Amino acid sequence: MESEKKSHAVSDVGAWAMNVISSVGIIMANKQLMFSGGYAFSFATTLTGFHFAVTALVGLVSNAAGYSASKHVPMWELLWFSIVANMSITGMNFSLMLNSVGFYQISKLSMIPVVCVLEWILHNKHYSREVKMAVVVVVIGVGVCTVTDVKVNAKGFMCACIAVMSTSLQQISIGSLQKKYSIGSFELLSKTAPIQAISLLIFGPFVDYYLSGKFITTYKLSYGALFFILISCSLAVFCNVSQYLCIGRFSAVSFQVLGHMKTVCVLTLGWILFDSQLTLKNIMGMLTAVIGMIIYSWAVELEKQANAKTTLPIKNSLTEEEIRLLKEGVEIAPLKDVEPSETKT
């Protein structure tokens, strides 16, 4: 039992580490790819379509080779999930375009309380006071180190609301679909990735044209840009798989809270690799966020132990049925007279 707990904890840490490393890596690769001082590839939605196309290809090869089993999930649920996921991607891109960076960061921070409320409404899930306090600390810390100027308009506010709601629903749906159909994270991803890839590759260029004023057909592809596109797509496979894996193992709220560790890593690497400014305010915010994540992990573990104690059956006395069975057992059991052996002298 103890060894099973240790192996489960190791696999949890491995899944989370893969998500953090791949997410930070893909942000760094995309920054070099899309940065005006890099390769100026300003087609984020189409690039996401490339990501899901490569992920779908990996899933197809895995199923064909027998490394993963394909379980049945109704097509209407896959379509609904893909629509919500694509709305999340498009909404985030439009929110970043129409709003200031500060309001964009605030909208991302609001996903934690939105996910909590949605899980309470949809799954009747309740949170302890310690968990709520930890969430507040994390939100304050990330807000301090990321939020700067806050400017908003009506269109940008609507896009941010759509992005937050769709992203929260997507992350809750990942866990609920895995439990509902007893399907693994990679199997679910391999079913939804082709639908998302086809839809994003069809509509993505038009969304990018609205965002940047350029069609992808006008972009002059260089070997350097192609290299970073391939790196981005390769990291996206690990990022997508680990996201489904983490939400399946933890919860949407835990994924959001611990996911802000990526924000801390991105700010630190941006300061090291890209000469981004790192002020005392950023450092204090990052430290506050890390403390909040530690408190959150402790609070979740405390909540698990409390739930385990309440679910353990405690029997102080025998039931009438057990007493009857014991009496019958005594009456039915054959009695044997044991005669003392005689010793001969």
Could you characterize the architecture of this molecule?
The structure is a single chain. Helices cover 78% and strands 0% of the residues. With 345 residues, the protein is mainly alpha-helical. Helix 3 packs antiparallel against helix 7 (154-181), helix 6 runs parallel beside helix 10 and helix 8 (185-212) packs across helix 9 (223-249). The model is unreliable at 314-319 and 331-345 (pLDDT under 50).
Radius of gyration: 27 Å
Largest sheet: none
Query: Approximately what portion of the residues adopt beta-strand conformation?
Result: under 5%
- How many individual β-strands? 0
Principal-axes shape call: globular
Summarize the structure.
This protein is 78% helix and 0% strand. The protein is built from 12 helices and no strands.
Please write out the topology.
Blueprint lengths: L1 H33 L9 H22 L9 H24 L2 H9 L1 H13 L5 H18 L7 H28 L3 H28 L10 H27 L2 H22 L6 H32 L8 H13 L13
Helix pairs in contact: 1-9, 1-10, 2-8, 2-9, 3-7, 3-8, 4-6, 5-7, 5-10, 6-10, 6-11, 7-9, 8-9, 10-11
Note the main attributes of this structure.
single chain, 345 residues, mainly alpha, 12 helices, globular, disordered C terminus
